[in-house]
Amino acid sequence: MATALIDTSLLLDYLAGEKRAQRALAGYAHRSISVVTWLELMSACPPEARESTRGFLRTFERLSLSEAIADEALRLMHDKPGLPINRAITWASANANQLPYLTVNPAFVAKAERNVVMPYRWA
Fold first, then answer.
1. What CATH number did the domain enclosing 18 receive?
2. Which residues of 46-63 are buried (b: 16+ CB within 10 A; e: fewer)?
3. Do the Cβ atoms of 86 and 65 come closer than 8 Å?
4. Which of 20, 83, 95, 114 is the most exposed place for a label (fewest CB within 10 A)?
């Protein structure tokens, strides 16, 4: 069973109807998101789509912020100057849980060193 932690960028594409995002997610039977991704998506969601978005996000395992994830996020921010805290926490969630990190954000991928999977690039 393929597993991965899915980045906010890919889920934004999926929710916008991007076919490439739909194909990318189809390859993963067990999908996780960070609590940061959940917050980003729910806060960006229009009021009329909140319940359907919440229902969609329930299909993912939501990983909480632990001390190990916080420590890894801090390490990533020190190692990768300019890495935003939200991306550091999400990537650290993947690292701490030994999951591939699925993203389509090329700015982030340029800073990556391991476990990052980019199924396509943002246009």
1. 3.40.50.1010
2. eeeeeeebeeebeebeeb
3. no
4. 114
**Residue 56 domain-assigned (yes or no):** yes
Residue 104 lies in a domain: yes
pTM of the model: 0.87
Within a domain: 81: no
| CA pair distance 10, 19, nearest whole angstrom | 11
| Dist. CA 42–CA 8, nearest whole Å | 11
User: pLDDT per residue over 46-102, tens digit each?
Assistant: 999 999 999 999 999 999 999 999 999 999 999 888 889 999 999 999 999 999 999
Structural domain range at position 56: 3-63+99-117
85-96 and 67-79 are packed helices; what angle lies between their axes, rounded to 10 degrees? 120
Contact assessment for residue 25 and residue 13, using Cβ atoms and an 8 Å cutoff: no
